[in-house]
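Sanity check

After download, print the first record. It should look like this:
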Amino acid sequence: MTFEQFAMARLPSLLRYAIVLTGDRHLAQDVVQEVLARAHVKWRRISGADSPEAYVRRMVLNEYLSWRRSWAVRNLHLAGERLVEIDDARGGVHDHADRIAESDELWNRLATLGRKQRAVLVLRYYEQLDDESIADLLNCSPATVRSQASKALRTLRLESERQLHLVEEKS
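Expected structure tokens:
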């Protein structure tokens, strides 16, 4: 497969992945563009890998986690970016307005997490990877992955409880 064939076939999938990681369509496009530019230069080596797509997805993850993108955490743009735009696996018929509200709420909560915690949750629940695969991608131990996931979920749970108490106080 040529680089051009790979890029055309995998671009939508890579963009969805980057959007979930970054929470921002424009930043995701920048990340994917940067990665594809580097992948094009190294395509002979990448195409010889067992899974060129997995290799490029790891490049996207590394670009997201890199120090050059650290400003993205502080300047996360939530407006205009909705999880309903991503092919999710929930299925069934849902009210569009409810889905947008749920998506905004989820983006707001994910934005409170650090980059590594957010990456762990995305890799676990969006990419459906096991702890060993996530640890390999993040260059850490499976125990660290479990710890990061636990802390991230605890943070999200505490924020949910806090929001629920605020709603109850108002009524």
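If your output differs, re-run the checksum step. Summary of this record's structure: The first helix runs from residue 3 to 22.
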